[in-house]
Design a protein that fits this description.
disordered C terminus, about 190 residues, mainly alpha, 9 helices
Length: about 190
């Protein structure tokens, strides 16, 4: 498509067929499981996981947070989204307190910085330790916090447009997908 658009090849000389694929519905974490993981994590990672969940952030969005992006007095945080645009989100007291407890790395502008000053990269081992300590046997990845908060908001009858803005989705259709996740999640819960 790109080559045709850039006039490198004649348009309409090929047909691209999409692969048959249904987007799988993720198994989201319950609020109790999220709380258990966050409480079981070491303080640095507790703040990171709490930030992922309460702000509904993608892993890279959370990794790139700088101290200058946080207004502790106004309880607000500025996030650079995928694609480079910015959004302002409210910062809960619990999240703000956990972030303030993180020791700053000298010379690093990043909140979640390694000793080298660069942003943290891989949190899988820390997340696995927290899950083990919380007694959660299933595999949990960082993006599951984003799926979970979106599903919990959807289940709490929060307006779809509000959730769209909160998550930073350009298309409402992306946010609407969480209605299927929420329905599947609540169906499973009611079957238990």
């Amino acid at each position: 498509k790109w080559a045709a658009k850039e006039n490198y090849i004649p348009a309409r000389t090929f047909r691209i067929e999409t692969l048959p694929h249904k987007r799988p519905v993720p198994m989201v974490l319950s609020p109790e499981e999220v709380l258990g993981i966050i409480r079981a994590a070491e303080p640095f990672y507790r703040a990171f996981f709490l930030t992922l969940y309460t702000l509904g952030l993608r892993l890279n969005e959370a990794r790139q947070i700088k101290w200058d992006d946080i207004d502790f007095k106004a309880h607000a945080i500025r996030i650079q989204q995928k694609g480079g645009s910015w959004k302002i989100l409210p910062l809960s007291d619990w999240t703000a307190n956990e972030i303030m407890a993180i020791p700053r790395v000298d010379g690093s502008p990043f909140v979640f910085a390694r000793k080298s000053g660069k942003p943290i990269y891989d949190v899988r081992k820390a997340l696995a330790r927290a899950c083990k300590n919380a007694g959660i046997p299933r595999h949990v990845n960082p993006h599951l916090f984003r799926h979970s908060i979106a599903t919990h908001l959807m289940g709490g009858n929060i307006n779809l447009r509000v959730i769209q803005k909160f998550l930073g989705h350009a298309q409402v259709g992306t946010t609407e997908w969480y209605t299927h996740v929420a329905l599947g999640h609540f169906s499973e819960a009611s079957a238990m």
